[in-house]
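request received
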Amino acid sequence: MAVRPASMSPSLPDNTGEIPGQRAPLVLGGLDYAGLTDRVCSIPEQPTAPPAWWATLALAAAGLAGFLCLIGYLVSTGIGVWGNNQPVAWAFDITNFVFWIGIGHAGTLISAILFLFRQNWRTSINRFAEAMTIFAVMCAGIFPAIHVGRPWLAYWMAPYPNQMGMWPNFRSPLLWDVFAVSTYALVSLMFWYVGMIPDLATLRDRARTRMRRILYGLFALGWTGSAAHWRRFECAYLLLAGLATPLVLSVHSVVSFDFATSQLPGWHTTIFPPYFVAGAVFGGFAMVLTLVIPARTFFGLQEVITLRHIENMNKVLLATGCIVGYAYGVELFIAWYSGSGFERFAFANRMGGPMAWAYWIMVGCNVVAPQLLWSKFCRTNLWVTLFVAMCVNVGMWFERFVIIVSSLSRDFVPSSWGGFSPTWVDFGMLAGSFGLFFTLFMLFVRYLPIVAMAEIKHVMPAGHAGDAGRAG
Amino acid sequence: MTHQPHNTQPGQDRHTLPFPVSPAIPAVAGGFLVAAVFLLSRGSADGMRRFWLAYVQAFAFVLSLSLGALFFVLIQHLTRAGWSVVVRRPAEILAANFGVLIVAFLPIAGTVAGGSGLLYRWARPLHVTQEAHARGSPLLPAARAAEPTEPPRAGGSAAQADGHDHDAHGGLDELTLKKRPWLNGPFFLARWAAYLAIWAVCGWFLLARSTEQDASGDPRLTLRLQYPSGAMTLLFGLTVTFAAFDLLMSLDAHWFSTIFGVYYFAGSVVGFLAVLILGLMLLQRLGLLRASVTVEHYHDLGKLLFAFVFFWGYIAFSQYMLIWYGNLPEETAWFARRGASTAEPNAWSAVALVLLLGHFVLPFAGLLSRHAKRSRAMLGGWAAWLLAMHWLDLYWLVMPEAPAAAWPPALAEIGCSAGLIGLFIAGLLRLASGRSLLAARDPRLPESLAFHNP
Amino acid sequence: MSVEVSTSRPPAEPVLYGLLAEFDDPAALARAAAAVRQKGYTRWDAHSPFPVHGLDEAMGARRTRLPLIALIAGLCGLIGGLKLAWYTNASDLAFMPSFLRGYPFMISGKPVFSLPANIPVVFETTVLLAALGTVLGMLGLNRLPRLHHPLFASERFARATTDRFFIVIEARDPRFDRRAAAEFLRSLGAAAVEEVAEGPP
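response:
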């Protein structure tokens, strides 16, 4: 039985410090291969799920149901049910899109970039984060699809031969988005699934019912752990990591191009691509922390996802938060330095205009709150971490909202200015997208291996034949 | 290329310079070269303008190598890196070389303080005339949608190519005046004093504490290096950004690009990694560090070089594509002057194309394979090539501001670069002589010695 | 057809698939693999719950061709993406049927073929095809997916994905001799050696 209250866990040693020259263990509690497998597999192998899981799933599924109803309402009525109107033609829809696609980026960062940097601690959280990526991209994809107004014609965005004799415009950033997001979804899915094959084989080999054996067996593809297979598997994993790294850079860069290729003050600025990427990783790490802290306690995984993992993620959160703060600062400085009245006005308007409250929420949540993490006490305190992560979740949503709505509502000519006020459908769909995300997430934690067992075994000290003395 | 390190006893390895080297020779030779081209350029205002631009380009080049090194060392401490210990000391020496860089900055400080405006047009004292206002600025907000002005062609007359930020009477145009609170001599000098002081203190701290560990072997020194490196990285990011704005972007006081600091940073790391790879190869040829630095470390440095080549390409593309796409005259003029336009190519177009291919496409393809990164000849070749490309990149950023087509490089550019490189080498020799080139008692040294790539 | 056979009882006239030797830890597996290779066996394999470090060297494995496959697939994506953007937006071939003909259309003042504007899409198609090539190439070279494997009949082997390490010498190895091979595997410190039958025909 996996679900153990935290109090039943053995008290774990503090592994957040490190004596130079010695490496702190990645996994605590003296787990061996079998112990680790038992600990992780026992979650999907529970015959009945705990009531808390059912309660959370029910809540999330209710949100999902509401989301589907609202989508039906929107499609049958028209996007006038949102508060969008000229000049603010993009509002919650694109804010939600950029928010969710950004959430996904931390998953790829953890699975691909930290892998390339040989950050072995990633193995405890990468499966989790990759799953989050996929679900976040699914949430993200819905908004651009429904905001076109006639989503049943969304397939027109694909370049296919047709009797209208028309093709998509490849010089349009919105088409780049279609390619970037769909590539990202597919590659993330492949990366996640390929990495999971050996763990699915573990579940297959431990299965006690025919149903489980067939289902896990089908998805394990007949994996036997052959050395020849592992060799190609490892090579494929490395290649996918190498491909996913520039891909993740490109995806949020392309999203930023949607704005930055325009001439709108506040949108047209060259730092947008790296700034969006850093912001995405920042927001994504906050979401990983938000999910991982309750999950590790709930499923008794404190020995696998240790305090050191939390602290490391907090460090990444602080670093990316500082990059985001840097980008805010440079944007502000150059807006002044450009000498262009429109640029200067756009930023003065953000900071002191009718939407100043949103700007200052953004700065407070994204720049000020993470500064707590300079202190080791805060980095290793779960409540402070959760607080900062929640701030960042809110702040990153507001960042996109500020960029989109403040620039659109007040551009060059005051006679064409306008405001934006969201409708109940706007709020409902934002909440509903969380319902979709958490429904998928709850199903994932219940039925799939949420920790990459094979990868952890690979970096456990005993996993190295031939050079036992090597520091790992 | 065995899977076992050649030798795990650093004690058997030589790691101090085997011969006494006097830093005076390159320092004097470098100083002499710069002085000579200065005297030779004195004939005309155009010649002096070109000399100063060449000097700034050379300074930006040597500065970037130390800045790249500073970033590298900080990140190693910040991430508690183990693999890199054997290559860290040469990087620390590069990062601590701000003594000569401060000396090399003095002429720039002098010309800014002198107010001649030969280098930075905005540095002239204020005497804006009514005419400047009367002529109007193309960048008043109301005129933003105006037709782009004819981009000046390199090779055109001096007035044509050079007249983009001041009027015929020598006054500053209205747009430059708007930036006066930032772009003025005293504030510029104060900012640079702060940048140089911050970099020098960081570089000195990292080298001094690390060298201290050679004697004591105290592991607590590793922690003392780690703790402040976060704040130092933050300071580094801010200072490098504004230094790039001040030193390079403000050569054209009209132009602005928020990514410019990142662009300079990306090129700096490429240049530094190239120098580190070449420097290690040279040291090993001299018989040093032979047992400590193996093909595995070169492989990792090669991966980093590859990554930063890609990063540079990504940043350069982002900057270019967004300005090309937006097509606003106040931004495109800068690229048009540099020939980065298919519609209006000029003498710089070839250089821009060489950069696209030589700074990104070719090294990207060349460093892609594992074999290339593990072959000494190929990695060394690409490092040398990329160092040259980094120099060319800065040349392309700076020299199109010169009054006439400053391509190919002539006496002023070659003299300034060679002179400042000589000075830079003198500084390195001074720091390296008598000092161990291996962090021999770093607690993570065994990990670095035993390191091999999967 | 069932996904795997769980029965441990071999059929009446079993055809021998090979000998399965179980080892306790990765170091023992690597040592044994080196010895098996030394002995001259060619049709054999090791199985482990995770990639064992140093095993490839011990088995004398060559580097896989997978990077080449990924590179070729990526280049196809690169060229394909460029061709797609050029053909649909910049070409106008009169001999093509109308539904396949390119549609050059001047928009936002950009040339019909604009390389800077095409790079994002070309990049994405490159990465997509390279990733597809990697995954499909890995599965293809590994002959996966397969619904059945003779080793699945062994109950012992179920722990190959948890914490046990195995070497299998196949019966079709030219040097294979049932008794000698079993003896040899035991001499390598195998915790257990068992015969595995070919699955149902």
